[in-house]
Design a protein that fits this description.
Blueprint: H1 2-17, H2 21-37, H3 44-65, H4 75-96, H5 100-105, H6 117-187, H7 192-205, E1 211-216, E2 221-225, H8 228-234, H9 246-249, E3 258-259, E4 263-264, E5 272-282, E6 285-298, H10 303-310, E7 316-321, E8 327-330, E9 343-346, E10 357-360, E11 371-377, E12 383-389, H11 390-439, H12 448-451, H13 458-504, H14 514-531, E13 534-542, H15 545-552, H16 554-569, E14 576-583, E15 586-592, H17 596-611, E16 615-618, E17 621-623, E18 627-635, H18 641-656, E19 663-668
Parallel strand pairs: 18-19
Antiparallel strand pairs: 1-2, 1-6, 3-5, 4-5, 5-6, 7-8, 7-12, 9-10, 11-12, 13-15, 13-18, 14-15, 16-17
Helix pairs in contact: 1-2, 2-3, 3-4, 4-11, 6-10, 6-11, 15-16
């Protein structure tokens, strides 16, 4: 059974990795534990620890080294994770196997000797301590990993941003200087001597430019710094033309500042040169360019750049690329040649959720190191790439995991020792107490051992007394609980009934409220549509009700509304399905299945009935009121319920504006 379980457990790993080494290690684990536990009871957790330390981890070390989809720097991490998982799974097995359902499922019932009270208490205490210890260490380890990884990544980003900022300052200073120089040259363009003096003065103030040249619109050099560059050529009646250079072509027809890719200087040695150039505009016409001014500086001689790139940190390297992805400068540890093509390829990613890359040299050979990458592009086209060596990150994690593994093993051993000591001290009395409970004793016998025993542990004594009190409390509580539940159930039913009535009834008149009216209107419309019968609505409005309130007060007005509601209720018939108060002094009736003419007749009866009433508002005090009624009927198969309400409301409007105490009607068929 153990071999079957190990095969099933390792199957997902076999499918994912394409290797059977996991089946081998898990299978040997099943055989090892089975042999040790066959004839005598052995501690499963301790057995698993011994297996992985002396057999499983050495085999796995060799197996992982043959699998290229794992980083070598992660080998120890994987082994420690296997050990931790093995302890966790063995601990779960130790907890579950003694349980009756599990024993029956695996046909172990009767084969596993029942544990004594001492063994059970020791098992429970050690299980609790081991569980808490494992959870604590896993949580702490996870927090440390997350914090460290986040700190590591943030440190990388901070170093990258700092270097990017330094490079931007250096290059933007050169670009700004060139951009300002062009306007000075524009003012003295026609004077060759002044033009040369301006160039020399600028170069002396900006020594980062090794050479500087000024070319006319045709590309011929006309000034230089140092001046010997042009003077030596002119003395031989020759000329130098730069019209084929990018730093000339990119700016001669516009006004922006151009930073070139890296190149080897022509005629000025074999140094790596970067050119910064811009067009010189005409003084009186900025849209017309007279020529180009260009400054060249040797990147390898820029100490500030070299220091910034080489002083990142022990784990972070930097590469500066031009627009053509050629190496301009790089950290010395990377050993990259200037102007060599720079290439990165995806690193191992099958079992990793972050992007890793390998560096490929000019010969197409992939480096052994794996890096995390940060990249940014400058506005003039260069790129800055910083690489963080993954092995440095892995080495820190490895140290934490080794400490974690020793801590877990120590927690397991100490937990068993501590649990044994505790269970030994009080298991006897606990066992006796459990026996009393199992036998169902009424605790009136054998009391001396628990009540007159000075050696009885305080916890056991309290537990014993609490059990005695609890039995009586439980009986009393059950009765109180039953009475309370019955009482609250009755109150809840009454309250629900009251709430249901309140939700559907107008509080003043006890007629249906607006909500019930809306629901009834929709339901009746559907019924009339299905049964092909007419649907009618009466909207009844109390005339001059505001005058009643103003004259007699709102309490009298409320009495009038209540009285009117009672009178309207007398007209409830089989056809009148709903009598509701819509709000204020407005009421409505919904009538199903009678002709429009009958609805008008009903409305007239209501109007005349109300007009003939004298409403008592006090001793020997009476008032008379009238109502205006709007009547509407529709064919439910052709018109909506909303249309019915609209027609009735319009009819009411006509009734009120025709002098009140009137009935008006509208019909759509």
């Amino acid at each position: 059974m153990g071999l079957v379980a190990s095969s099933l457990a390792s199957l997902p790993l076999v499918l994912a990795w394409g290797s059977f080494w996991s089946t081998l290690t898990f299978g040997l684990e099943a055989v090892f534990i089975g042999l040790l536990c066959k004839n005598k009871r052995s501690n499963i957790v301790l057995t698993v620890i011994a297996y992985w330390l002396f057999i499983g981890m050495p085999i796995s070390w060799y197996s992982i080294s043959q699998y290229e989809d794992f980083l070598d720097s992660h080998r120890t991490t994987i082994l420690i994770k296997q050990l931790a998982n093995g302890i966790l799974y063995a601990h779960l097995a130790a907890l579950l196997l003694p349980l009756s359902p599990v024993s029956r499922f695996f046909s172990l019932a009767g084969k596993i000797r029942a544990r004594s009270i001492k063994e059970q208490s020791s098992h429970l205490i050690s299980s609790l301590l081991i569980t808490l210890g494992i959870l604590f260490f896993f949580y702490t380890l996870n927090q440390n990993f997350n914090n460290f990884s986040e700190k590591f990544a943030q440190s990388h980003i901070a170093k990258h941003n700092s270097l990017e900022y330094q490079l931007s300052l250096i290059m933007e200073d050169n670009q700004k200087a060139i951009a300002e120089l062009k306007y000075t040259l524009a003012r003295v363009w026609e004077d060759k001597q002044q033009r040369g003096e301006v160039l020399l003065d600028f170069n002396s103030r900006n020594p980062s430019f090794k050479t500087m040249v000024v070319a006319n619109k045709s590309g011929d050099l006309i000034n230089s710094s140092p001046p010997e560059l042009v003077q030596n050529v002119l003395s031989q009646n020759e000329s130098i033309n730069i019209a084929d250079r990018d730093y000339f072509n990119q700016v001669i027809e516009n006004s922006h500042v151009y930073v070139s890719p890296g190149f080897v200087g022509r005629g000025f040695g074999r140094d790596l040169i970067v050119a910064v150039s811009t067009a010189v505009p005409a003084a009186n016409d900025s849209t017309k360019n007279l020529g180009v001014v260009e400054g060249s500086f040797v990147l390898t001689s820029e100490k500030s750049l070299k220091q910034a790139i080489n002083n990142m940190s022990d784990s972070v390297e930097a590469v500066l690329l031009d627009q053509n992805d050629q190496v301009l400068m790089s950290s010395e540890k990377l050993k990259l040649l200037s102007l060599s093509p720079f290439k990165l390829v995806p690193g191992v990613s099958k079992f990793y959720d972050h992007d890793l890359v390998n560096l490929v040299d000019g010969n197409g050979i992939k480096s052994d190191e794996v890096y995390y990458i940060e990249e940014s592009v400058f506005h003039w086209g260069w790129k800055l790439i910083t690489l963080r060596n993954e092995q440095v990150h892995a080495s820190v994690i490895e140290k934490s995991l080794i400490l974690f593994a020793f801590s877990i093993v120590l927690v397991v051993l100490l937990s068993y020792l501590f649990a044994w000591l505790i269970s030994h001290s009080w298991s006897y009395y606990m066992q006796k107490l459990i026996q009393l409970i199992d036998r169902g004793e009424d605790f009136e016998k054998e009391l001396i051992e628990f009540e007159e025993n000075d050696e009885l542990p305080e916890e056991i004594s309290k537990l014993y007394q609490e059990i005695k009190r609890s039995r009586l409390k439980i009986t009393n509580m059950n009765q109180v609980l039953q009475n309370t539940v019955a009482e609250r159930t009755e109150k809840l039913q009454l309250l629900n009934t009251k709430l249901n009535v309140m939700a559907r009834q107008d509080a003043l008149t006890k007629l249906d409220n607006r909500r019930v009216f809306n629901d009834s209107l929709n339901e009746l419309w559907i019924e009339c549509q299905r049964e092909l019968i007419p649907l009618s609505m009466l909207i009844i409005d109390l005339d001059y009700f505001k005058k009643v309130n103003d004259t007699y007060g709102h309490p009298i007005g409320d009495q009038v509304l209540i009285y009117l509601g009672k009178e309207l209720s007398q007209f409830k018939t089989d056809g009148v399905k709903c009598i509701a108060r819509l709000g204020g002094e407005e009421f409505s009736m919904l009538i199903k299945g009678i002709e429009h003419k009958e609805s008008i007749e009903l409305a007239e009866k209501i109007r005349s009935h109300i007009a003939g009433l004298s409403i008592s508002i006090g001793t020997d005090k009476f008032i008379n009121v009238t109502v205006s009624i709007g009547v509407a009927s529709i064919d439910a198969t052709k018109f909506t319920s909303s249309k019915l309400y609209q027609l009735a409301d319009n009819a009411l409007y006509e009734a009120k504006h025709s002098g009140r105490n009137a009935v008006k009607h509208l019909e759509l068929d």
